[in-house]
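Fresh eyes needed here. Have a critical look at this protein's tokenised backbone.
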Amino acid sequence: MIIGVPKEIKNNEYRVAMVPSGIRALVENGHRVLVQKSAGEGAGIPNAEYESAGATIISEAELIFKEAEMVIKVKEPLPQEYGLLKPDQLLFTYLHLAPASELTKALLKQGVIGIAYETVQLDNMSLPLLTPMSEIAGKLSVQVAARYLEKENGGSGVLLGGVPGVKPGNVVILGGGTVGQNAAKIALGMGAHVTLLDISLEKLRYLDDTLGGRITLLSSNTDNIEQAVKKADVVIGGVLVPGAKARKLVTRRMISGMRKGSVMVDVAIDQGGCFETSKATCFDDPVFLVEGVIQYCVANMPGCVARTSTFALTNATLPYILKLANSGYEKALQDDIPLRKGLNTYKGKLTNKPVAEAVGIPHVSYESAIKN
């Protein structure tokens, strides 16, 4: 199979979909890999390392999309890439289609076979290709919040860890999944007072055991969220329903009751965000004010630690990429149920129900799609 690795073009996106060791594994399995020139430079990987691993370096993205049977990326295609996609081409990347109706329509129009990293799901309901980026985003969210709390950045001037004689800052985390757990670890490490809310009592019990009672754990409901947010210096939004738009858990009215200069970080922004006032931002202009509260809604947070993120992503995606390349997508999707759950578009048909409900486009089952 011919596999293409184009350079990412999203604002300040420095990750790349594959590291040289992954290229070597694909080449050793008999595949040809085309890597766009300078695709890895943002992650500290020069062209020479890709060439040594067996890749062919291509200058223009257009040539990669034209030649490749499977395109692997980090982020979703942008409008200037829509026309480069071709019918029956396999696209394997983060898609996050629920809040992106125009992208969904473009993928359907181009007839691509779109498999989304974020909806590949194991039997235990875990998301193996989303997990590494969620780990990174969760850890980054508290670092980002601490920086924007500083007065020169417009914040309230609170040090999360406090000092002897002065109480620490209050960090409220919505969601006890991968993002929430990693955010809690960093916030606790900084010495903050941490409150985490989740709808699953089983998850709260698990966190109580693993975090040794160092964290306040609350059932997620409107009253508890409102009371927690009101006292928060930092709110981290880390809720997720695979494939679907995130629920709006924090309203503008709740935000209006927070101290001015407090910080909110919406890690769920890829799926539309879990704050009523959220809107996607980029690294060039990452924050905006709502009722005097700073909101940070960068949709590709792990891109700022591109080297770590790139290696972590390849560790997770390579086994699936090898399966798709070695077996062909038809057999791979038939044999691997978790991979099949990642299928979002198939030759002009939408195959993911939560995405269909979010964008208002009819969907069909995978079985129906492949028969027609």
Notes: The radius of gyration is 21 Å. The mean pLDDT is 96. The domain at 2-126+306-371 is CATH 3.40.50.720 (Rossmann fold). The CA atoms of residues 38 and 329 lie 28 Å apart.
